[in-house]
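Q: Hi! First time doing this. I have a protein sequence and I read that you can turn it into a structure. Is that right? Here it is:
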Amino acid sequence: MLKPNLSARRKSHGCGGEAAPPPIWFTVPATFIHPSLQLLTTEFIFEPEGGQTAVTWIMTGKNNFLSKAVGLFLDCDRLVGADFEKGLASLKQLAEAAAPA
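A: Yes, that's right. Below is the predicted 3D structure, encoded as structure tokens:
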């Protein structure tokens, strides 16, 4: 389940007393078991930007020896990039379907 972390990374935008709403930030644990066990943290940050919402998707974690070795020979961003793009496209579709007309 996604848990919002509304107190983190708050920042104000604008001047003269006008401020945009703070970004909404969700932190989700992620576990990968192949090719090696990795416990990662996935963060989604939603920030209003004009009439749209900018989405930032961050994955962080420690690289064990096997992960570091694999990273020397494989472009890990390329390996997971397509999945990230599909996930963001799906998120966009869900958000647009739920938006008020």
